[in-house]
Write a structure and sequence with these properties.
five-stranded antiparallel sheet; 9 strands
Amino acid sequence: MILCHLTQIQRVPTKSQEIVEQEDTYFIGEYVLVECKLPKKREQFYVGEIEQVEEPNIDCKFLKKKSEGLYFMFPEIPDRDIATKDSIVMKLSKPSQSKST
């Protein structure tokens, strides 16, 4: 099993706050933080790796949180979905990988 550790996640501004400058060019292999609004719940945030970019859709493969802290892993059954540029909150640095038994 390979765990990904995200080391550079910063406080995320809400959509109502001013975002100084957001890069809107996305590439395959980049990691992003995606906001998903669910009924009767607050916003949920998910970490995803971009698999394909076809404007305005961005196909992502999502990770799941493994344990406390900022450790994530790809689930055994891939969790894929389509995000839009509006739902991407920020790009993340490429995570470090560590092997776990």
